[in-house]
C-alpha cells in the first residue's frame, strides 16, 4: 500500500530571496539534521542571465534503524538524489527527490515548492508532499514503513526550525535583505522592444514536492522589511500551517496531511458546499486519523444531513411550546477551557410526558438543534478566546431521577438519540459532568453505556450526592461565578425547571405516527428500494422538446446502474413490486416498475443516455436536454458484478455476496425536476440556478471510478 503525505502551506514572513539565502546554508551538510551526513553536486546548470539555476545532488543519509536491519540489508547509509530548480525571475524553487538505494524494493518520491505568497509578495510559501511504496524488504516491510514515517515526520517538524535558525544566523551577520533578481543591462536593451516586463507570478499549486534546496546569491544589503499582516482565512484549495494552529489546534504532520488529503478529496468529489475543516477533523479524530474509515462515516453523515436538511434546522424549525416549557436543558456560559456549557436537569424532566406529547422524532430533532447550536457556539468561542474550541461541556444534574425515568419507550428514545448523535456529531463532547447521581443511576448507565463510544465514555465524570462540591469537583472545571444557583452557586440559570407534562397534551399513537411522518418527510427527496430483478423507475412526461430533466440522487446502499429511456407511448399505471419472489419486505423506500415485461428495447422504448454505474456512497447530479416530447423513464437498476475477465468462474467476492440477502437490495434517495424549454438558455449557469433548492451538503463518492462518473455527469449536463 502506498503511504502518502501532504503538508499544509507553511508561510515565512520573509521575502523569497532571503529565504533562499538561508536555505543555501543547509548544504553540503546541516548540523540540525544529524542523519544528513553529506551531499555531493553531480550536475549543475546556470542560464546566461543567472535567472535559472538547476542543481542536482547526491545526498548521504544515516537512517536511524536497528543495527540488525542494516546488517541484513547490507548497507550503512542510504542515498537520495535531489534536483533543485530555482527560477529567480519567477521567484520559485521546485525540488524533486527520490531514493537511489533499494530503489527496486522501496520507492520514495518527495516534492517541495517555495513560492511567493499570493497576497503578500514579501512573504514566502512552502509546501511539500511525498509518497512511500514498499514492494518488499527481506520480510521487514512493516518495520521499514514505521521507521520511514517516523524519520520523515521528525524531519518535517524540523523544517521550519532549520530555516529560522539560518535566518537568525544571517541577521546576526547583519544580513536582513537580499535584492531581487534583475536582468542584465544588455538583456534589458535587447528585450525592451520585444516584450514588456513580466509580472511576478502567484504561488503555484504543485501536486507534490520534496525537502532540500539551494541557491547562489552574493549581493546582500542591510535593510529591514515589515510586511503587513495577511487577511484572515486560507485559499480555497490549501490550508495554511498558521491557520491550522490558530483554528484547528496542534496537529502532528501526519494528522495535518490526513486533514488536507480528505479535504481535497471532498473538493474533487462534491458538487456543492463542503464541510468546514473543524467538522472534517472531528470525523478524523473519531477514527484515529484513518482516512478510509473517517471518509466512510463522514459520507454517511453528509447523506443523512442532506436527507433531513439538518443544515437549515436552526433557521427553519421552531421547537414546539411543550419543549420550550418542559425540556429542562439550555446553554449556560462556558467552562474554564472556553468550551460552551450545556446544562441538562434530567432528574427534573418528565421524559415519559415529553415522548407521549411529542413523539421520538420531535425529541430527536430538538436534540439535533441543540448540537447544531453547539457547533455554532464553538465557532464563536474560537474567535472570542483566540484558540481552537471544537467541543462543548455538558453538565447533567440527576437529582430527582427515579424509576419513572426508566420507562421503556423513553429509554428507547434516548438510545436512538444517542445513536444518531454518535454517528453525526463525533468528538463534539469535550467533557460530561454527571452530578448528584442517585442509586437508580447504575441501572440507567447499564442500559445506555453500550451505545456510547469508548472515547466518549472516557470523558464522563460522575459524582454521587454532594461529592461535586469537594476537591476534584465542579470548581476544577467551571468558574465559581457561573455555577448555577440550583447547585449552590450564585449565578441565575435560565434553564427551564421541567416538571410533569399535563396529560391533556398527550397524543394518540395515530396522531404521533402522522406527526412523525410530517416531521421527517419535510424534504424534497424521495427514497426508493432497488432489488435484483426489480428496478425502481420514475415517469416524466415531456410536452415541449428541449426541456431539461435534472436529477440529484444519493446511493445509500449497494451499487446501481442509472438509465434514461424514452417512449412515445405511456407505460401502464405504475405497479409496486410485491417482492414476494425475493422474500424481502421493504418497510422503508418504495419500488415502482413502469417498463412492461413485454416491451422490447429499440421497438417500444429507446435508451437516450449511456448507462452510468454508481457505487455505494456516491452523490450524482446531472441533466438531460430532451430531443423529443413523450415519456421519459429514469431507472435505478441493481448492478450485477461482472465475473472475472480471465475465467468463466465467478469471483470469490461475488459468491460471498450472493449468499447475503442484503446484497440483493439497494437504496437510493432521489430528487428530479423538469425545467421548461423557455427557462433554459443552454448554459451551465441556467442549469445551476435551477439547483438552488438542493442541499448545500451532498454525499461523497468513495468509488475508484469517480473520475469516470464525474465526466459522464458533466457530459450529460451538456448533451
UniProtKB/TrEMBL annotation:
Keywords: Cytoplasm, Golgi apparatus, Immunity, Innate immunity, Phosphoprotein, Signal transduction inhibitor. Its main location: cytoplasm. GO terms for molecular function: RIG-I binding. Residues 521-674 form the GOLD domain. Residues 3-175 form the PRELI/MSF1 domain. GO terms for biological process: innate immune response; negative regulation of RIG-I signaling pathway. One of its GO terms (cellular component) is Golgi apparatus. It comes from the Eukaryota. Residues 319-495 form the CRAL-TRIO domain. The keyword Lipoprotein does not apply. InterPro entries: CRAL-TRIO_dom, CRAL-TRIO_dom_sf, CRAL/TRIO_N_dom, CRAL/TRIO_N_dom_sf, GOLD_dom, GOLD_dom_sf, PRELI/MSF1_dom, SEC14/CRAL-TRIO_domain. It is found in: Cytoplasm; Golgi apparatus. May play a role in innate immunity by inhibiting the antiviral RIG-I signaling pathway. In this pathway, functions as a negative regulator of RIGI, the cytoplasmic sensor of viral nucleic acids. Prevents the interaction of RIGI with MAVS/IPS1, an important step in signal propagation. May also regulate the SLC18A3 and SLC5A7 cholinergic transporters. Interacts with RIGI (via tandem CARD domain); the interaction is direct. Interacts (via GOLD domain) with SLC18A3; the interaction is direct. Interacts with SLC5A7 (via GOLD domain); the interaction is direct. This is SEC14-like protein 1.
Amino acid at each position: 500500500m502506498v503511504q502518502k503525505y501532504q503538508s499544509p502551506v507553511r508561510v515565512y514572513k520573509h521575502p523569497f530571496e532571503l529565504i533562499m539565502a538561508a536555505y543555501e546554508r543547509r548544504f553540503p551538510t546541516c548540523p540540525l539534521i544529524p542523519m544528513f551526513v553529506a551531499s555531493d553536486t553531480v550536475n549543475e546548470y546556470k542560464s546566461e542571465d543567472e535567472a535559472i539555476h538547476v542543481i542536482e545532488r547526491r545526498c548521504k543519509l544515516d537512517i536511524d534503524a536497528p543495527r540488525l536491519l542494516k546488517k541484513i540489508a547490507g548497507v550503512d547509509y542510504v542515498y537520495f538524489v535531489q534536483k533543485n530548480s530555482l527560477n529567480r525571475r519567477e521567484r520559485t524553487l521546485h525540488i524533486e527527490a527520490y531514493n537511489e538505494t533499494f530503489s527496486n524494493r522501496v520507492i520514495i518520491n518527495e516534492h517541495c515548492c517555495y513560492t511567493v505568497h499570493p497576497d503578500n509578495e514579501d512573504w514566502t510559501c512552502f509546501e511539500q508532499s511525498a509518497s512511500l511504496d514498499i514492494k518488499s524488504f527481506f520480510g521487514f516491510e512493516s518495520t521499514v514503513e514505521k521507521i520511514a514515517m517516523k524519520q520523515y515526520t521528525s524531519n518535517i517538524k524540523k523544517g521550519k526550525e532549520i530555516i529560522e535558525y539560518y535566518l537568525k544566523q544571517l541577521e546576526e551577520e547583519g544580513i536582513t535583505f537580499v535584492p531581487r533578481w534583475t536582468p542584465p543591462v544588455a538583456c534589458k536593451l535587447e528585450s525592451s522592444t520585444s516584450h514588456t516586463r513580466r509580472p511576478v507570478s502567484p504561488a503555484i499549486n504543485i501536486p507534490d514536492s520534496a525537502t532540500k534546496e539551494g541557491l547562489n546569491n552574493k549581493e546582500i544589503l542591510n535593510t529591514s522589511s515589515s510586511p503587513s499582516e495577511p487577511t484572515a482565512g486560507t485559499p480555497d484549495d490549501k490550508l495554511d500551517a498558521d491557520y491550522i494552529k490558530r483554528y484547528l489546534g496542534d496537529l502532528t504532520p501526519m494528522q495535518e496531511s490526513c486533514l488536507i488529503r480528505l479535504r481535497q478529496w471532498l473538493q474533487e468529489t462534491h458538487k456543492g458546499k463542503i464541510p468546514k475543516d473543524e467538522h472534517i477533523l472531528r470525523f478524523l479524530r473519531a477514527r484515529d486519523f484513518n482516512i478510509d474509515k473517517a471518509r466512510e462515516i463522514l459520507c454517511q453523515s453528509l447523506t443523512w444531513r442532506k436527507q433531513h436538511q439538518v443544515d437549515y434546522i436552526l433557521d427553519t424549525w421552531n421547537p414546539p411550546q411543550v419543549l420550550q416549557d418542559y425540556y429542562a436543558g439550555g446553554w449556560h456560559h462556558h467552562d474554564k477551557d472556553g468550551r460552551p456549557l450545556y446544562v441538562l436537569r434530567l432528574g427534573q424532566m418528565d421524559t415519559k410526558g415529553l415522548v407521549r406529547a411529542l413523539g421520538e422524532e420531535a425529541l430527536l430533532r430538538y436534540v439535533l438543534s441543540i448540537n447544531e447550536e453547539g457547533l455554532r457556539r464553538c465557532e464563536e468561542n474560537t474567535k472570542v478566546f483566540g484558540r481552537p474550541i471544537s467541543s462543548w461541556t455538558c453538565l447533567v444534574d440527576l437529582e430527582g431521577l427515579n424509576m419513572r425515568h426508566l420507562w421503556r419507550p423513553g429509554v428507547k428514545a434516548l438510545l436512538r438519540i444517542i445513536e444518531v448523535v454518535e454517528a453525526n456529531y463525533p468528538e463534539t463532547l469535550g467533557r460530561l459532568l454527571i452530578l448528584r447521581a442517585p442509586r437508580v443511576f447504575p441501572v440507567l448507565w447499564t442500559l445506555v453505556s453500550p451505545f456510547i463510544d469508548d472515547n466518549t465514555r472516557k470523558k464522563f465524570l460522575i459524582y454521587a450526592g454532594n461529592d461535586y462540591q469537594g476537591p476534584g469537583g465542579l470548581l476544577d472545571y467551571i468558574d465559581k461565578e457561573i455555577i448555577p444557583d440550583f447547585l449552590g452557586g450564585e449565578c441565575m440559570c435560565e434553564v427551564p425547571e421541567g416538571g410533569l407534562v399535563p396529560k391533556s397534551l398527550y397524543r394518540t399513537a395515530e396522531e404521533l405516527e402522522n406527526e412523525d411522518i410530517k416531521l421527517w418527510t419535510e424534504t424534497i427527496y424521495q427514497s426508493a428500494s432497488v432489488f435484483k430483478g426489480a428496478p425502481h423507475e420514475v415517469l416524466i412526461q415531456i410536452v415541449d422538446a428541449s426541456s431539461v430533466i435534472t436529477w440529484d440522487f444519493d446511493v445509500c446502499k449497494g451499487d446501481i446502474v442509472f438509465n434514461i429511456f424514452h417512449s412515445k407511448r405511456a407505460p401502464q399505471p405504475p405497479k409496486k413490486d410485491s417482492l414476494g419472489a425475493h422474500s424481502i419486505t421493504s418497510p422503508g423506500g418504495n419500488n415502482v416498475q413502469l417498463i412492461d415485461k413485454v416491451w422490447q428495447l429499440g421497438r417500444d422504448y429507446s435508451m437516450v443516455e449511456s448507462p452510468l454505474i454508481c457505487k455505494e456512497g456516491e452523490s450524482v447530479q446531472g441533466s438531460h436536454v430532451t430531443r423529443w416530447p413523450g415519456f421519459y423513464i429514469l431507472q435505478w437498476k441493481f448492478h450485477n458484478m461482472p465475473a472475472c475477465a480471465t475465467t468463466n468462474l465467478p469471483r470469490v467476492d461475488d459468491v460471498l455476496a450472493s449468499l447475503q440477502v442484503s446484497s440483493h437490495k439497494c437504496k437510493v434517495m432521489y430528487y428530479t425536476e423538469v425545467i421548461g424549454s423557455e427557462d433554459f438558455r443552454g448554459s451551465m449557469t441556467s442549469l445551476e440556478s435551477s439547483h438552488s433548492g438542493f442541499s448545500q451538503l451532498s454525499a461523497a463518492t468513495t468509488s475508484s471510478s469517480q473520475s469516470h462518473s464525474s465526466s459522464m455527469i458533466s457530459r450529460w449536463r451538456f448533451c
